[in-house]
From TrEMBL:
GO molecular function, one term: hydrolase activity, hydrolyzing N-glycosyl compounds
Protein name per UniProt: Inosine/uridine-preferring nucleoside hydrolase domain-containing protein
Keyword Flavoprotein attached: no
Region (Disordered): 1-22, 73-102
Keywords per UniProt: Glycosidase, Hydrolase
Highest taxon of the lineage: Eukaryota
Family: Belongs to the IUNH family.
Domain Inosine/uridine-preferring nucleoside hydrolase residue range list: 101-359
The keyword Electron transport belongs to this UniProt entry's keyword annotation: no
Species name: Urochloa decumbens
Length: 370
């Protein structure tokens, strides 16, 4: 993340949704109260927001752009390519329609949308399983009409990431809310990308807990484990926020009622999908609330004091029964034998979170208009 910016710090996120269609979603917003520009997420109040999806973009905003690559395990999906992996159904490829629908729904068609890679880093077809979590339309069964004005950009998402890192070296934070294919492709385009990017905040991994795709893997790591392993070991400033953290941050029924009484366009938008997500979490997790995966990762980038972290080497299992498993070697123990962890760059892994503060901050953003 940008550390010193005279006009404000830039925080970017690039989010890509997988399946045969993957996208990078990036949102940029300026925090004037703090010396920082921030990326908003899922209706979060943004004053500038860039969304990129499955690889294409648009020219950067006037201020420091910020990219976000990814999606959250259970925050949204699409009629054909959901944002998360949950449930038994496979999705089919679809265009950037979902992102454009969302932008039109909240009156933000000024935000560019770009497509990301349609396949994994190894050129395999991307399989997504998430209809039970995200609904038949991938947006919590909101029934939004087709987008009429918002159009995708022409630049591939990976190229956009590289462009922004070169335009604003050290000032761009990537909040990766989905599989890391586009980031890995950016690294292929520019081997110096890890040194030019400010920080990469990854929503992904299950550290000392079961995954949400299967007992071994969290959905974003499972979506492209090869890309994830490359990003974790590329030498960039990486912070991993796993589901061991995000599943501690829960939107309650009381929070939902507050949103329903808000006049904010973002609150009205998000409330249309909450019934589906509350039902899903009740059936699958037996909880009376919704896990705030994406917002937790985003806000960890915006306000690092919300989490604490440990440092070490993370490797991702790329094949077999435990495909997508994240294995964290803490720097607290020395091993005599060489291994796949030996000599690798370290990353930070979130180990605690101030859950009430995350929920409160997200609620404030959702209930305030631009």
């Amino acid at each position: 993340m940008a550390r010193n910016s005279s006009a404000g710090r830039s925080c970017a996120m690039a989010s890509h949704h997988e399946l045969a269609s993957q996208r990078i979603r990036t949102e940029v917003s300026r925090w004037r109260a703090q010396d920082r520009a921030v990326v908003g997420v899922h209706g979060d109040r943004c004053q500038q927001k860039i969304q990129t999806r499955r690889g294409e973009t648009n020219k950067p905003p006037e201020d420091h752009p910020i990219l976000d690559e990814g999606q959250e395990e259970c925050a949204r999906a699409s009629t054909a390519a959901p944002a998360r992996i949950e449930g038994p159904r496979r999705w089919q490829a679809r265009p950037t329609e979902e992102e454009n629908r969302q932008l039109e729904a909240v009156g933000r068609t000024d935000i560019p949308v770009a497509e990301g890679s349609h396949v994994t880093l190894k050129k395999d077809r991307k399989l997504r399983i998430a209809s039970s979590c995200h609904g038949s339309d991938g947006l919590g069964n909101q029934g939004l009409p087709p987008a009429t004005t918002a159009k995708p950009l022409d630049q591939p998402a990976a190229a956009f990431l590289v462009e922004q890192a070169n335009l604003y070296p050290g000032q761009v934070t990537v909040v990766a809310l989905g599989p890391l294919t586009n980031l890995a492709l950016a690294l292929e385009l520019d081997p110096l990308f890890p040194k030019k990017i400010g920080q990469i905040v990854v929503l992904g991994g299950a550290y000392s807990v079961n995954g949400n795709v299967n007992p071994a893997a969290e959905s974003n790591m499972f979506g492209d484990p090869d890309a994830a392993d490359i990003i974790f070991t590329c030498g960039a400033d990486v912070l991993a926020v796993g589901i061991n953290i995000t599943q501690q941050v829960i939107l309650s029924e009381a929070d939902r009622e507050k949103l329903e009484h808000s006049d904010s366009k973002y609150a009205r938008y998000i409330c249309k999908s909450l019934a589906h997500y509350f039902d899903y979490h009740g059936e699958v997790y037996f909880t009376k609330g919704v896990y705030l995966h994406d917002p937790t990762a985003l806000l960890a980038a915006v306000n690092p004091s919300l989490i604490t972290s440990a440092e070490g080497v993370v490797r991702v299992q790329t094949a077999g029964t435990t495909k997508g498993l994240t294995l964290f070697r803490s720097t607290e123990k020395w091993y005599a034998d060489m291994s796949a962890w030996s000599g690798m760059p370290t990353v930070k892994v979130a180990v605690t979170v101030d859950a009430p503060a995350v929920v409160e901050l997200m609620m404030q953003r959702l209930m305030a208009d631009d």
